[in-house]
């Protein structure tokens, strides 16, 4: 049986570097499951540009599921499972090792353990109506529509407007729910399942501050200006992302640059902490501290 490797972890823990090392060692190909790096044109703020440069230094090891949708497209964990399953099978058939790497554990969880979803089609009219709702308003709407669905959400999901909107969309379409599994068999689950986290929690903030400073220096503001110039907006799914939201507010003169950076760092730290809380519930992950 072909080995499957999965690498998860908090923001800025070196997941890509480890994945490349393992790809070199095990004749592998990488599969991205970072929900921010699946989007085209979102390069600097997501760190994609740095990852691509790193990969080039490793003799162009193949990586899948980068740049697959535009910023105005919604992309769910169901979409991820649908795309990634045949990719894994293709890699295995060619005698190579699939190496899943990323920080969006929800995508990986749904691939490995199934999806509580009914594959409801997108309802763009409803999404437009929900776009300007606060998180609290979205929570209230979902609670009224499907309290059981709301109660199943973890702390990360319950505070994530995109995931709340998707649950509302599903609940509005039908009350019937099904449990969707990927085509992976239990025997095909990762033989190696690595999680990366910080041993010293104070180091997390330091690393994130450094990354934010680097991305600003590398042209983060110009990246956002370019996206807005080609008619993408702050309400597009891809731009409802940490970093982009703060810079858009700065460009709209809603906040100062100093405030934008502060909010960006704080949001990244909060996200990294939620990542760890979410992943720690998976007892199959073997943790490495850095």
TrEMBL record:
UniProt keyword terms in alphabetical order: ATP-binding, Magnesium, Nucleotide-binding, Transferase, tRNA processing
Binding site for ATP: 9-16
Documented EC number(s): 2.5.1.75
Enzyme class: transferase
Cofactor(s) needed by this chain: Mg(2+)
GO MF entries: ATP binding; tRNA dimethylallyltransferase activity
Site (Interaction with substrate tRNA): 104, 127
Gene3D superfamilies registered for this protein in UniProt: 1.10.20.140, P-loop containing nucleotide triphosphate hydrolases
Assembly behavior: Monomer.
Its biological purpose: Catalyzes the transfer of a dimethylallyl group onto the adenine at position 37 in tRNAs that read codons beginning with uridine, leading to the formation of N6-(dimethylallyl)adenosine (i(6)A).
Protein name as annotated: tRNA dimethylallyltransferase
Organism: Candidatus Roizmanbacteria bacterium GW2011_GWA2_33_33
Gene of this entry: miaA
